[in-house]
Amino acid sequence: MRKTQISAIEQALVQNQNFLNVKGVNLGVTGGTLGLSLFYYYYYLYTNEEKYIDKIMFHLNKAFEGINSDYQGYFIALDMIEIVQFLYFIKDKELIDDDINEYCQGFDEWIYKFLDIKVKEKELDPYGGIIKVGTYFLERSKDIEVTHIIDNILTLIEEWATTDGLKKEEISFNYNFLDKKCKEVGKGHGVAGIVFFLLQVHEKGFFKDRCKKIITPAIQFLLNRKLTKGTNLFPYNSDSTMTYEYSNLSYGDMGIGYTLYHAGRILNNETYSTQGIETMLNLSTFRDDKEEKIYDANLIYGAAGIYSLFRLFEEYHPNKAFTQASEYWLDRVMAFGTKNTKWAGYKTFYNGEQNELQLCFDQGICGIGITLICKELNILPDYLNFVNYNFI
Predict the structure, then answer these.
(1) Which is nearest to 391 in space by CA: 265, 35, 382?
(2) pLDDT tens string 250-280
Protein backbone atom coordinates (compact mmCIF):
# COMPACT_ATOMS: atom_id res chain seq x y z
CA MET A 1 0.00 0.00 0.00
CA ARG A 2 2.80 2.44 0.91
CA LYS A 3 4.63 1.62 -2.32
CA THR A 4 1.50 2.45 -4.32
CA GLN A 5 1.14 5.73 -2.45
CA ILE A 6 4.80 6.66 -2.98
CA SER A 7 4.46 6.05 -6.72
CA ALA A 8 1.27 8.11 -6.84
CA ILE A 9 3.03 11.00 -5.08
CA GLU A 10 5.95 10.90 -7.52
CA GLN A 11 3.54 10.96 -10.47
CA ALA A 12 1.61 13.87 -8.96
CA LEU A 13 4.85 15.80 -8.53
CA VAL A 14 5.80 15.21 -12.16
CA GLN A 15 2.40 16.34 -13.37
CA ASN A 16 2.24 19.45 -11.18
CA GLN A 17 5.88 20.47 -10.65
CA ASN A 18 5.39 23.77 -12.46
CA PHE A 19 3.57 25.07 -9.39
CA LEU A 20 6.88 24.81 -7.52
CA ASN A 21 9.15 25.77 -10.41
CA VAL A 22 7.93 29.34 -10.71
CA LYS A 23 10.90 31.52 -11.60
CA GLY A 24 11.89 33.86 -8.81
CA VAL A 25 9.34 32.58 -6.27
CA ASN A 26 9.80 30.13 -3.38
CA LEU A 27 13.16 28.62 -4.23
CA GLY A 28 14.03 26.92 -0.95
CA VAL A 29 13.47 23.45 0.48
CA THR A 30 10.53 23.95 2.80
CA GLY A 31 8.16 25.81 0.50
CA GLY A 32 9.64 25.74 -2.97
CA THR A 33 11.69 24.29 -5.78
CA LEU A 34 14.34 22.57 -3.67
CA GLY A 35 11.67 20.48 -1.99
CA LEU A 36 11.54 18.57 -5.27
CA SER A 37 15.31 18.03 -5.14
CA LEU A 38 15.01 16.71 -1.62
CA PHE A 39 12.19 14.38 -2.62
CA TYR A 40 14.22 13.00 -5.51
CA TYR A 41 17.18 12.37 -3.24
CA TYR A 42 15.07 9.99 -1.19
CA TYR A 43 13.36 8.63 -4.31
CA TYR A 44 16.81 7.84 -5.67
CA LEU A 45 17.56 5.86 -2.49
CA TYR A 46 14.21 4.13 -2.86
CA THR A 47 14.58 3.12 -6.51
CA ASN A 48 18.37 2.99 -6.77
CA GLU A 49 17.98 4.51 -10.24
CA GLU A 50 20.62 7.10 -11.09
CA LYS A 51 18.27 9.02 -13.38
CA TYR A 52 16.79 10.56 -10.25
CA ILE A 53 20.14 12.15 -9.39
CA ASP A 54 19.66 14.16 -12.58
CA LYS A 55 16.30 15.34 -11.23
CA ILE A 56 17.94 16.41 -7.96
CA MET A 57 20.39 18.55 -9.91
CA PHE A 58 17.75 19.84 -12.33
CA HIS A 59 15.67 21.37 -9.57
CA LEU A 60 18.78 22.60 -7.74
CA ASN A 61 19.78 24.49 -10.89
CA LYS A 62 16.24 25.91 -11.08
CA ALA A 63 16.71 27.31 -7.59
CA PHE A 64 20.03 28.92 -8.51
CA GLU A 65 18.51 30.40 -11.66
CA GLY A 66 15.79 32.02 -9.57
CA ILE A 67 18.25 34.07 -7.50
CA ASN A 68 18.20 37.16 -9.69
CA SER A 69 16.62 40.58 -10.02
CA ASP A 70 13.25 39.01 -10.86
CA TYR A 71 12.96 37.36 -7.46
CA GLN A 72 9.49 37.84 -5.97
CA GLY A 73 9.47 35.42 -3.03
CA TYR A 74 8.91 36.18 0.66
CA PHE A 75 12.53 37.01 1.39
CA ILE A 76 15.48 36.06 -0.75
CA ALA A 77 17.77 35.50 2.23
CA LEU A 78 15.60 32.71 3.62
CA ASP A 79 15.72 30.88 0.30
CA MET A 80 19.49 31.37 0.16
CA ILE A 81 19.82 29.88 3.64
CA GLU A 82 17.93 26.78 2.52
CA ILE A 83 19.90 26.48 -0.73
CA VAL A 84 23.13 26.44 1.25
CA GLN A 85 21.69 23.97 3.76
CA PHE A 86 20.74 21.68 0.88
CA LEU A 87 24.20 21.96 -0.69
CA TYR A 88 25.80 20.79 2.54
CA PHE A 89 23.20 18.04 2.80
CA ILE A 90 24.00 16.54 -0.61
CA LYS A 91 27.71 17.08 0.00
CA ASP A 92 27.46 15.08 3.23
CA LYS A 93 25.52 12.40 1.34
CA GLU A 94 28.41 12.27 -1.19
CA LEU A 95 26.17 13.14 -4.13
CA ILE A 96 28.58 15.90 -5.10
CA ASP A 97 32.29 16.36 -4.52
CA ASP A 98 32.48 20.01 -5.58
CA ASP A 99 33.96 22.68 -3.34
CA ILE A 100 30.59 24.11 -2.34
CA ASN A 101 32.22 26.96 -0.43
CA GLU A 102 32.65 28.73 -3.76
CA TYR A 103 28.87 28.70 -4.27
CA CYS A 104 28.07 29.60 -0.67
CA GLN A 105 30.35 32.63 -0.46
CA GLY A 106 28.12 34.45 -2.89
CA PHE A 107 25.26 34.17 -0.40
CA ASP A 108 27.13 35.15 2.78
CA GLU A 109 26.90 38.91 2.17
CA TRP A 110 23.12 38.68 1.70
CA ILE A 111 22.79 36.78 4.95
CA TYR A 112 24.86 39.39 6.82
CA LYS A 113 22.45 42.07 5.58
CA PHE A 114 19.45 39.96 6.58
CA LEU A 115 20.96 39.60 10.06
CA ASP A 116 21.27 43.38 10.36
CA ILE A 117 17.59 43.76 9.47
CA LYS A 118 16.51 41.20 12.04
CA VAL A 119 18.69 42.76 14.76
CA LYS A 120 16.97 46.11 14.18
CA GLU A 121 13.59 44.36 14.35
CA LYS A 122 14.73 42.54 17.53
CA GLU A 123 13.44 39.28 16.04
CA LEU A 124 15.15 36.14 17.33
CA ASP A 125 12.67 33.75 15.68
CA PRO A 126 14.14 30.31 14.77
CA TYR A 127 12.13 30.13 11.54
CA GLY A 128 12.81 33.54 10.05
CA GLY A 129 14.92 35.64 12.40
CA ILE A 130 18.33 35.92 14.04
CA ILE A 131 18.44 32.28 15.13
CA LYS A 132 17.74 31.17 11.56
CA VAL A 133 20.83 33.14 10.54
CA GLY A 134 22.74 31.60 13.41
CA THR A 135 22.00 28.08 12.19
CA TYR A 136 23.18 29.14 8.71
CA PHE A 137 26.56 30.21 10.04
CA LEU A 138 26.87 27.08 12.19
CA GLU A 139 26.56 25.17 8.91
CA ARG A 140 29.06 27.49 7.22
CA SER A 141 31.54 26.87 10.04
CA LYS A 142 32.60 23.80 8.06
CA ASP A 143 34.31 26.14 5.59
CA ILE A 144 34.70 29.64 7.04
CA GLU A 145 35.51 31.28 10.36
CA VAL A 146 32.24 32.22 12.07
CA THR A 147 33.27 32.66 15.71
CA HIS A 148 32.72 36.43 15.65
CA ILE A 149 29.21 36.03 14.21
CA ILE A 150 28.18 33.43 16.78
CA ASP A 151 29.71 35.68 19.46
CA ASN A 152 27.56 38.62 18.28
CA ILE A 153 24.38 36.53 18.25
CA LEU A 154 25.10 35.16 21.72
CA THR A 155 25.69 38.70 22.95
CA LEU A 156 22.25 39.73 21.67
CA ILE A 157 20.62 36.77 23.40
CA GLU A 158 22.42 37.68 26.63
CA GLU A 159 21.37 41.31 26.34
CA TRP A 160 17.75 40.36 25.67
CA ALA A 161 17.61 37.82 28.51
CA THR A 162 15.37 39.02 31.33
CA THR A 163 14.57 38.04 34.90
CA ASP A 164 11.77 40.59 35.33
CA GLY A 165 8.94 39.07 37.34
CA LEU A 166 10.61 35.66 37.39
CA LYS A 167 12.05 33.43 40.06
CA LYS A 168 15.77 33.94 40.64
CA GLU A 169 16.69 30.66 38.94
CA GLU A 170 14.80 31.55 35.74
CA ILE A 171 15.35 33.67 32.66
CA SER A 172 13.22 34.43 29.65
CA PHE A 173 13.88 36.72 26.67
CA ASN A 174 12.65 40.10 25.42
CA TYR A 175 12.28 39.94 21.64
CA ASN A 176 9.70 40.38 18.93
CA PHE A 177 7.78 38.06 16.66
CA LEU A 178 5.51 39.47 13.93
CA ASP A 179 6.13 42.98 15.30
CA LYS A 180 4.93 42.10 18.79
CA LYS A 181 6.66 41.02 21.97
CA CYS A 182 6.94 37.25 21.86
CA LYS A 183 5.56 35.36 24.84
CA GLU A 184 5.64 31.89 23.31
CA VAL A 185 7.14 29.01 25.24
CA GLY A 186 7.50 26.37 22.51
CA LYS A 187 10.21 25.44 20.05
CA GLY A 188 8.60 27.05 17.01
CA HIS A 189 9.01 30.68 18.02
CA GLY A 190 9.55 30.68 21.78
CA VAL A 191 11.94 29.98 24.63
CA ALA A 192 12.49 26.32 23.72
CA GLY A 193 13.55 27.37 20.22
CA ILE A 194 16.21 29.67 21.65
CA VAL A 195 17.43 26.91 23.97
CA PHE A 196 17.63 24.47 21.07
CA PHE A 197 19.79 26.88 19.07
CA LEU A 198 22.12 27.35 22.05
CA LEU A 199 22.42 23.57 22.33
CA GLN A 200 23.55 23.46 18.70
CA VAL A 201 26.11 26.20 19.37
CA HIS A 202 27.35 24.29 22.43
CA GLU A 203 27.55 21.02 20.48
CA LYS A 204 29.63 22.73 17.77
CA GLY A 205 32.13 23.78 20.45
CA PHE A 206 31.45 27.53 20.48
CA PHE A 207 31.34 29.38 23.82
CA LYS A 208 30.19 26.36 25.82
CA ASP A 209 30.23 28.09 29.20
CA ARG A 210 28.26 31.08 27.95
CA CYS A 211 25.70 28.81 26.31
CA LYS A 212 25.23 26.72 29.43
CA LYS A 213 24.85 29.85 31.54
CA ILE A 214 21.82 30.82 29.43
CA ILE A 215 20.44 27.32 28.80
CA THR A 216 20.22 26.30 32.46
CA PRO A 217 17.91 29.09 33.74
CA ALA A 218 15.94 29.09 30.48
CA ILE A 219 15.18 25.37 30.91
CA GLN A 220 14.23 26.05 34.51
CA PHE A 221 11.81 28.69 33.20
CA LEU A 222 10.21 25.96 31.08
CA LEU A 223 10.13 23.31 33.79
CA ASN A 224 8.59 25.69 36.33
CA ARG A 225 5.63 26.10 33.96
CA LYS A 226 5.04 22.41 33.43
CA LEU A 227 1.54 21.25 34.35
CA THR A 228 0.52 17.90 35.81
CA LYS A 229 -2.00 16.73 33.22
CA GLY A 230 -3.37 17.38 29.75
CA THR A 231 -2.60 16.53 26.15
CA ASN A 232 0.20 19.08 26.50
CA LEU A 233 1.94 19.77 29.78
CA PHE A 234 3.41 23.15 28.83
CA PRO A 235 1.38 26.33 28.21
CA TYR A 236 1.73 28.08 24.88
CA ASN A 237 2.39 31.51 26.44
CA SER A 238 4.61 32.43 29.34
CA ASP A 239 1.85 34.43 31.07
CA SER A 240 -0.84 31.75 30.79
CA THR A 241 -1.64 28.22 31.89
CA MET A 242 -3.64 27.54 28.72
CA THR A 243 -2.37 24.68 26.56
CA TYR A 244 -3.06 23.46 23.05
CA GLU A 245 -5.41 20.50 22.73
CA TYR A 246 -3.12 18.97 20.11
CA SER A 247 0.56 18.86 19.25
CA ASN A 248 2.56 18.83 16.03
CA LEU A 249 6.04 19.92 14.96
CA SER A 250 5.00 23.58 15.08
CA TYR A 251 2.89 23.83 18.23
CA GLY A 252 2.55 22.08 21.55
CA ASP A 253 4.91 19.88 23.51
CA MET A 254 6.66 17.94 20.74
CA GLY A 255 9.34 20.59 20.25
CA ILE A 256 9.77 21.08 23.99
CA GLY A 257 10.17 17.36 24.59
CA TYR A 258 12.72 17.16 21.78
CA THR A 259 14.66 20.12 23.21
CA LEU A 260 14.69 18.80 26.76
CA TYR A 261 15.83 15.36 25.65
CA HIS A 262 18.77 16.78 23.70
CA ALA A 263 19.62 19.21 26.50
CA GLY A 264 20.07 16.21 28.77
CA ARG A 265 22.22 14.40 26.24
CA ILE A 266 24.44 17.36 25.36
CA LEU A 267 24.82 18.74 28.90
CA ASN A 268 24.99 15.29 30.52
CA ASN A 269 21.97 16.11 32.66
CA GLU A 270 19.75 13.12 33.36
CA THR A 271 16.94 15.30 34.74
CA TYR A 272 16.54 17.11 31.44
CA SER A 273 16.55 13.88 29.44
CA THR A 274 13.98 12.34 31.76
CA GLN A 275 11.77 15.40 31.47
CA GLY A 276 11.99 15.18 27.67
CA ILE A 277 11.06 11.49 27.67
CA GLU A 278 8.19 12.06 30.12
CA THR A 279 6.86 14.89 27.95
CA MET A 280 6.89 12.69 24.86
CA LEU A 281 5.38 9.73 26.71
CA ASN A 282 2.52 11.95 27.81
CA LEU A 283 1.99 13.01 24.18
CA SER A 284 2.18 9.45 22.92
CA THR A 285 -1.43 8.84 24.02
CA PHE A 286 -2.79 11.64 21.80
CA ARG A 287 -5.16 10.29 19.14
CA ASP A 288 -7.46 12.03 16.67
CA ASP A 289 -9.57 9.49 14.79
CA LYS A 290 -12.23 12.07 13.95
CA GLU A 291 -9.75 14.60 12.48
CA GLU A 292 -10.88 17.31 14.89
CA LYS A 293 -7.37 18.57 15.73
CA ILE A 294 -5.01 17.26 13.05
CA TYR A 295 -6.52 18.01 9.67
CA ASP A 296 -4.05 16.58 7.17
CA ALA A 297 -0.91 14.51 6.64
CA ASN A 298 1.74 17.19 6.19
CA LEU A 299 4.99 17.55 8.09
CA ILE A 300 4.78 20.75 10.07
CA TYR A 301 1.12 20.70 11.09
CA GLY A 302 0.02 17.17 10.34
CA ALA A 303 0.36 13.45 10.85
CA ALA A 304 3.67 12.94 8.98
CA GLY A 305 5.55 15.21 11.36
CA ILE A 306 4.02 13.59 14.44
CA TYR A 307 4.88 10.13 13.12
CA SER A 308 8.43 11.23 12.29
CA LEU A 309 9.20 12.51 15.77
CA PHE A 310 7.82 9.43 17.50
CA ARG A 311 9.88 7.34 15.07
CA LEU A 312 12.95 9.19 16.31
CA PHE A 313 12.03 8.63 19.95
CA GLU A 314 11.63 4.92 19.25
CA GLU A 315 15.33 5.06 18.39
CA TYR A 316 16.36 7.34 21.27
CA HIS A 317 14.44 5.54 23.99
CA PRO A 318 12.79 2.26 22.91
CA ASN A 319 9.36 2.11 24.46
CA LYS A 320 6.12 0.42 23.49
CA ALA A 321 4.24 3.71 23.81
CA PHE A 322 6.47 5.39 21.21
CA THR A 323 6.09 2.44 18.84
CA GLN A 324 2.30 2.48 19.18
CA ALA A 325 2.21 6.24 18.64
CA SER A 326 4.40 6.10 15.53
CA GLU A 327 2.31 3.28 14.07
CA TYR A 328 -0.92 5.16 14.76
CA TRP A 329 0.26 8.36 13.10
CA LEU A 330 1.70 6.47 10.14
CA ASP A 331 -1.73 4.93 9.66
CA ARG A 332 -3.21 8.43 9.78
CA VAL A 333 -0.76 9.57 7.08
CA MET A 334 -2.05 6.81 4.84
CA ALA A 335 -5.70 7.48 5.70
CA PHE A 336 -5.40 11.15 4.75
CA GLY A 337 -4.32 10.10 1.24
CA THR A 338 -7.67 8.70 0.10
CA LYS A 339 -9.34 11.86 -1.15
CA ASN A 340 -10.21 12.55 -4.78
CA THR A 341 -7.49 15.11 -5.51
CA LYS A 342 -4.73 15.60 -8.04
CA TRP A 343 -2.24 15.59 -5.19
CA ALA A 344 -2.11 11.77 -4.94
CA GLY A 345 -5.22 11.77 -2.76
CA TYR A 346 -3.89 14.32 -0.24
CA LYS A 347 -5.08 17.82 0.51
CA THR A 348 -3.32 20.23 2.82
CA PHE A 349 -5.70 22.09 5.08
CA TYR A 350 -4.13 25.45 5.96
CA ASN A 351 -4.01 27.80 2.95
CA GLY A 352 -4.86 24.83 0.75
CA GLU A 353 -6.03 27.10 -2.06
CA GLN A 354 -2.35 27.73 -2.84
CA ASN A 355 -1.28 24.97 -5.21
CA GLU A 356 2.37 25.18 -4.23
CA LEU A 357 1.47 24.29 -0.64
CA GLN A 358 -0.15 21.07 -1.83
CA LEU A 359 3.20 20.05 -3.30
CA CYS A 360 5.91 21.53 -1.12
CA PHE A 361 8.07 19.84 1.48
CA ASP A 362 6.79 21.27 4.74
CA GLN A 363 3.05 21.34 3.98
CA GLY A 364 2.59 19.16 0.91
CA ILE A 365 3.22 15.84 -0.73
CA CYS A 366 7.00 16.21 -1.09
CA GLY A 367 7.30 15.86 2.68
CA ILE A 368 4.63 13.16 2.91
CA GLY A 369 6.35 11.13 0.19
CA ILE A 370 9.74 11.44 1.87
CA THR A 371 8.20 10.29 5.15
CA LEU A 372 6.74 7.18 3.52
CA ILE A 373 9.99 6.41 1.68
CA CYS A 374 12.03 6.56 4.89
CA LYS A 375 9.57 4.21 6.55
CA GLU A 376 9.80 1.84 3.59
CA LEU A 377 13.61 1.90 3.71
CA ASN A 378 13.71 1.80 7.52
CA ILE A 379 15.97 4.84 7.76
CA LEU A 380 15.79 7.59 10.36
CA PRO A 381 13.95 10.78 9.38
CA ASP A 382 16.95 13.05 8.84
CA TYR A 383 14.73 15.23 6.64
CA LEU A 384 13.57 16.81 9.89
CA ASN A 385 16.77 18.88 9.76
CA PHE A 386 14.99 21.06 7.20
CA VAL A 387 12.15 21.93 9.60
CA ASN A 388 14.43 22.94 12.50
CA TYR A 389 14.47 19.53 14.18
CA ASN A 390 18.19 19.22 13.60
CA PHE A 391 20.02 16.02 14.45
CA ILE A 392 22.47 17.25 17.10
Answers:
(1) 382
(2) 999 999 999 999 999 999 999 999 999 999 9
